[in-house]
Amino acid sequence: MQNDLVLDHKKQVYGLHTVRLNSEGANFQVIVNGYPIYCKGANYVPPDMMYPRLINKDFYPPKSIQSLLDDAVESNFNMLRVWGGGQYESD
Fold first, then answer.
1. How far apart are the first and last CA of the chain?
2. Lowest CB count within 10 Å: 20, 58, 61, 63, which one?
3. How many angstroms separate the CA atoms of 69 and 77, rounded?
């Protein structure tokens, strides 16, 4: 967008038929619909490990999570690995 004017638009319908992980040997590939996908991204960990602060929305507004996700999009990530040792985030 430029000055609130849409400059280009593309709509495409697609589907994920198969998703599998190839982790044989030194490989670690995500295969989607038979094609290897180059994954570039990072680990996502909760911004604060103190659970009481996480549930206090006045102290920890959801906007801060959105800003982390916006940073990932701005960095052209196509994958985020959610760390399994932390608090699960909401959808």
1. 28
2. 58
3. 10
